Amino acid sequence: MDQTTLQAVSSQTLAPTAETVEHGFSMLDMFWGADPIIKIIMLMLVAASFWSWTIIFQKTIRLKKLTDAADQFEEAFWSGGALDDLYDRIHNRPQDPLSATFCAAMKEWRRSVSKGIAKASDARGTMQQRIERVMHLTINREMEDLERYLGFLASTGSTAPFIGLFGTVLGIMNSFQSIAIQQNTNLAVVAPGIAEALFATAIGLVAAIPAVIAYNKLSSDMNRYANRLEAFAGEFTGIISRQLEEGAA
Known about the structure:
By secondary structure, the protein is mostly helical. It has nine helices and no strands. 85% of the residues lie in helices and 0% in strands. Helix 6 (97-114) runs antiparallel to helix 7. The N and C termini lie far apart (117 Å).
């Protein structure tokens, strides 16, 4: 057999067909052909990505609804109508943290008025402090509920690349093991392990990047919403203070 024939046979043996490459290196093929530990890592990253997107959509939709509800409440609050009527209308089912803060303050106000505390000059300062404390406790409780699971996005954004990197290291180790076992440095020997390694890295980045971006965006929006609640509490405290001064006059 001449040299040209040997080269042709060698090239046909070593070079996989397009069909083989497409079949052997698709995402599913790389997953099913991966080491069991790498499979677990991939599944963990996919689950983290799925849960992250669930949190992102849920928090985004909820923030939009809460903002719209806060706009409607503030429109009713500053419309000039009686605050007692507004409280009687919404106190059974506050629709958002802003109205819940208002209802908590009004409830404390009515309790104090019913006990005659508002008419006692020495107790008015204590009454105002209690109302302020009730509003701040309500704000903290509502924000805790709103920020629930947000830490998962931060954890995913910071740890997913390293988890993917762990899968990368395992895939490269498998490649070197294949070289040692087969005593062959051909690309067909090392390619599967390298492909698994890069695939694990890619999944880690796909899970981490949206989580980091969403965490920063949602944190900014929630801080802005918390500042809105605090501003309302301050304004309502001013209204209560004026009411107490007018009652003392």
